[in-house]
Design the sequence.
């Protein structure tokens, strides 16, 4: 159950007309009163002889009784209380009791206070009510409403327990502000896929992913088609920024601006500058071997896989501030991948990045310098350009998505252990989208590898089976039973042809991280071998095997596999 306290207003009659009216999309059905400060309060929804003006006059009496100089400018208090979609439909009596409990705990009408504020609760849908109140008590004083939103949330948790409703974890104050109902309706009128606030938050995160400084950040925002307004001090220093969606204007035909801090707590300019300070420069890809035949997107994704693997180890450390920084870095890599992919994969990655953004924020202060490598990876992905969904680009993308799934699942577990329920749920939702993106990207690559493995001659298949038993004897039986064993055989064959010690390479791949939770150990080992073959110098040059176009290349996947399949079928 979610209570939401809306902005205070100055016209009681305007809110009454909205609550009893048809709604902006005819969604208000049978508006009627379920409770009020006085049981005899007339109901314009059920009594045809009662007007909206009569109800307004009754609620406003304490306000009108004050001299005009003492009347509050914003005297209308408005709160909605909404049940979760999976909750049962509550009766009017249940909603009446919930309304009384809520106005009592917020300070609008404390229990037993006969001089409290006047209020009314209107129901115009099955799943929620609206409470309207006027902020002058019957004794002429103002109500004490300190922290009423937090108290309403705490009472909602008790209501959930009492009524057997879905239990929602309490917020921790680190979430981005939710769009208002008015913002959602406006987005529908403008035919936007989301509200301006949500769209702009996505634009800012994508522009921030791997950006080296403010100049690049603002340039990338401009390239995304976002309007920017900087707040500049007399000295010329930029103090902050605001952004607006082109075409989104207010009633005065002016752009609707959102400051960075209004989009999310971590998107203010001072917070963003802390990220820039960790990466004053972005050198060429470190540690990864120079592969002249590999495209820039391939090299960038291999580097991202390597740095994400290192981040996984950091998440298991005892220093929470290090892990918190890695989560922010993983979020930037996700944003970078989302803006350099195509088609269904891009859509799933954008959804994954959208959910995971919530998992990057908690009250644990991040050591920003610890995200340096991941920010470099994001930078390289963005600047290497788009990656095709097939060939080496597709294989490298599948490789990095495979390890990103592990990283996001690790993030969900990390948050769950620390009681960060909202962050853990967001990370789990991101993992679901990442799995879908991985499956869409990897399917073609793995199918080509399986065909390659199936067409190898019997002696080669026997030799690679012996390699598996020698390198991972404890996994050999399970690997033999998996449908992906042919793809694993194919990669071992290609690694052997590249001059690698396949027993040592496979043993190392299996030891990198646990494999027990993998749905397909074969598939995981395929990508690990692919990556290790890319970053590891072959033990010797290919000798007995047929020459390859690029003898020093990593174990190939679908790009070079189609020709190999045809050749193997003729052996």
Sequence:
């Amino acid at each position: 159950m979610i209570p939401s306290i809306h902005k205070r207003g100055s016209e009681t009659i305007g809110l009454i007309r909205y609550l009893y009216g048809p709604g902006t999309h005819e969604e208000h059905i049978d508006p009627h009163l379920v409770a009020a400060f006085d049981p005899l309060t007339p109901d314009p929804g059920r009594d045809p002889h009662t007007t909206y003006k009569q109800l307004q006059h009754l609620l406003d009496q304490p306000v009108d009784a004050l001299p005009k100089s003492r009347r509050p400018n914003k005297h209308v208090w408005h709160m909605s209380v909404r049940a979760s979609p999976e909750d049962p439909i509550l009766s009017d009596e249940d909603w009446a009791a919930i309304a009384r409990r809520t106005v009592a705990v917020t300070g609008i009408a404390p229990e037993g206070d006969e001089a409290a504020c006047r209020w009314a609760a209107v129901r115009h849908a099955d799943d929620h009510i609206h409470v309207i109140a006027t902020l002058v008590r019957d004794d002429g004083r103002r109500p004490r409403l300190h922290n009423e939103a937090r108290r309403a949330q705490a009472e909602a948790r008790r209501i959930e327990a009492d009524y057997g409703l879905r239990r929602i974890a309490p917020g921790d104050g680190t979430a981005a502000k939710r769009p208002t109902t008015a913002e959602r309706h406006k987005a529908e009128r403008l035919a936007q896929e989301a509200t301006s606030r949500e769209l702009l938050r996505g634009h800012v995160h994508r522009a921030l992913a791997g950006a080296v400084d403010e100049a690049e950040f603002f340039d990338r925002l401009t390239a995304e088609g976002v309007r920017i307004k900087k707040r500049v001090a007399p000295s010329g220093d930029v103090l902050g920024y605001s952004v607006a969606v082109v075409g989104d204007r207010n009633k005065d035909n002016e752009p609707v601006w959102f400051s960075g801090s209004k989009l999310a707590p971590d998107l203010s300019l001072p917070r963003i500058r802390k990220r820039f300070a960790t990466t004053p420069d972005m050198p060429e890809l470190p540690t990864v071997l120079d592969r002249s035949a590999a495209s820039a997107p391939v090299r960038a994704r291999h580097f991202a896989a390597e740095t994400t693997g290192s981040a996984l180890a950091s998440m298991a450390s005892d220093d929470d501030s290090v892990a918190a920084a890695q989560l922010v870095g993983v979020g930037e890599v996700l944003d970078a991948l989302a803006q350099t992919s195509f088609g269904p994969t891009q859509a799933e990655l954008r959804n994954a990045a959208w959910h995971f953004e919530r998992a990057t924020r908690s009250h644990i202060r991040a050591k920003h310098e610890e995200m340096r490598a991941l920010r470099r990876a994001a930078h390289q992905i963005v600047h290497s350009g788009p990656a095709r969904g097939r060939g080496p680009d597709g294989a490298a993308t599948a490789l990095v998505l495979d390890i990103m799934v592990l990283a996001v699942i690790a993030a969900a577990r990390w948050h769950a252990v620390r009681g960060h329920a909202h962050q853990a749920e967001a990370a789990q939702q991101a993992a679901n989208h990442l799995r879908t993106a991985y499956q869409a990207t990897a399917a073609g690559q793995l199918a080509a590898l399986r065909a390659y493995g199936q067409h190898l001659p019997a002696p080669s298949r026997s030799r690679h089976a012996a390699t598996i038993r020698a390198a991972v004897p404890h996994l050999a039986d399970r690997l033999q039973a998996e449908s992906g064993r042919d793809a694993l055989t194919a990669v071992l064959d290609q690694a052997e042809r590249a001059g690698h010690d396949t027993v040592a390479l496979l043993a190392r791949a299996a030891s990198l991280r646990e494999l027990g939770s993998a749905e397909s150990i074969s598939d995981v080992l395929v990508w690990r071998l692919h990556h290790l073959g890319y970053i590891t110098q072959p033990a010797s040059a290919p000798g007995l095997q047929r020459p390859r176009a690029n003898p020093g290349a990593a174990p190939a996947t679908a790009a070079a596999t189609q020709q190999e399949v045809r050749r193997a079928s003729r052996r």
User: Anything to note?
Assistant: Residues 181-278 form one domain. Confidence is low (pLDDT under 50) at residues 285-290, 543-554, 557-571. The first helix runs from residue 12 to 20.
